[in-house]
Amino acid sequence: MSDLLNRLSAEVATRLRGAGRQVYYVGGSVRDELLGVEVHDRDLTTDATPAELKMLFPGALEVGAHFGVMLIRRDGVEVQVATFRTESSYRNGRHPEEVRFETDVVADLRRRDFTINALLRDPFTGAILDPLGGMADLRAGIIRAIGNPAERFQEDHLRMLRAVRFAARLGFEIEAGTMDAIRTLAPQINRISAERIRDELVRILTEGGARRGFELLDSSGLLLEILPEVSAMKGVQQPPQFHPEGDVWIHTLGLLERMGTPPIELALGCLLHDVGKPPTQTFEDRIRFNGHDHVGAGMTRRILSRLRFPSDVIEAVESMVDQHMKFKDAGRMGVSAFKRFVRQPGFDELLQLHRLDILASGGGLRSYDAVKDRYEALPEEQLRPPPLITGRDLIELGYQPGPAMGTILRSVEEQQLEGQLQSKEEAIAYVRRVWAPAAT
């Protein structure tokens, strides 16, 4: 944790205590400190009313006025301060209709999601307060809902995905009663917004433990609800000579296991690169998946659009899925074709997807190394050289604007990438030699 965050947290706590109010550090920051995980933000809880918080921190941002939540920022760090509260009469699996401010911190803790997130730390003594048994679950590596699990998940359906995320990232088990409630209520997950589901999936994919996360999504029934196309990979057999590891689902889990903490585009590429295999499986001379890359690209666009991913992420992942099979032909590509292949946006992620794809199939990295070495040997000036001629040059030579001009310029670039043309003069001579004379 940064010194700035420490100082700001201490100042906020001191001002509240000086006003005669209870104040504690609470939630994820307490949990992560006890686990030795770096903390980047801090939540405080207090019996100060929202009106008192406004007076004590006049420059604070009200991020949840109805819930008595204030955000205090300084020098790039922030702490969140919330009034003790209880909630009831939840609607739409997310929003409570009634909020009551409390003076008892234990009442506040009972409305929270999991015991490991209901730990308190005294800002002044450092003492841990644990009225709901969070420390025992933290030591045992257990994700346990507070009180009645079904009630907690009915209050906010997203907590089901959060249970999976915490278990995956921390390497914990989900307590049996908590998991049973998730299995029962899994169909309700789609009552909440696609954006909230998306954000939890991003965290599961990128915070570490993605394989474990997707195994839990599957065993809990959540995967079938939010990503039925991925669930459909289970049991889809592959040719054993190329995929001794097993079916498409097992292969995909193998990529997720090896990702680490990747950028979201690569993570989604790993998850969806073979999403087109279930609908394209055929049994000919062997099991085949003809065109699964192109079919999968279209499915990828539909899936990510449904989950409201940004357009740039959708385009990047769709391209990865569409092109992930091109590496089998990379060794036979000519100079210009290879340069076009490797200079496209996102190629570094595509190359990493290829590496993970090979490793998850139990193969060697010879083809990956060959492409990587050839790619890295190309200087930037050869990979993306400035054009030798432009459309204006062709107009000066007497050519008319139109589709034919684009064809000529692409042909010149092809020869340039092949190393056959080095200068503008050579390019003009090539055009005059190869293409029909310009109208005069």
Automatic annotation (TrEMBL):
GO terms for biological process: RNA repair; tRNA processing. Residues 171-232 form the tRNA nucleotidyltransferase/poly(A) polymerase RNA and SrmB- binding domain. Its cofactor is Mg(2+). Residues 300-429 form the CCA-adding enzyme C-terminal domain. Coiled coil: none annotated. Belongs to the tRNA nucleotidyltransferase/poly(A) polymerase family. This is CCA tRNA nucleotidyltransferase. It comes from Paludibaculum fermentans. The lineage of its organism: Bacteria, Pseudomonadati, Acidobacteriota, Terriglobia, Bryobacterales.
